[in-house]
Amino acid sequence: MDDECLFCQIASGKIASDIVYEDNDVVAFTDVSPGAPTHLLIVPRVHLASLNDTDTKDIELLGKMMRAAITLAKEHDLAEGGYRLVINTGKDAGQTVGHIHLHLLGGRSLSWPPG
Q: Which of 26, 29, 36, 40 could pair covalently with 17 via S-S, beta carbons 3.0-4.6 A apart?
């Protein structure tokens, strides 16, 4: 864990957030600046700065993030109508926090292409 990282501090409970899911490896919480009626962030408890910092040893963790997203989509009644999962990687893609995170967006029709 990186004590300076905002998402590490949320995952460890040092900073309060609206936690909607947690297990031993993953934490999910509502985005403070939502881009859709449902906008959740799913983060690993371990600090990884971006998708570029993952390796084959992280495949299981990435899968757990996806499984959490599917569970949350069902719990938030998004599964039938549809939802979007996004991982921004790097500044040009819009990554603003240096901790890998998966966006779960839904609750309205989402246009394509994004941004």
A: 29
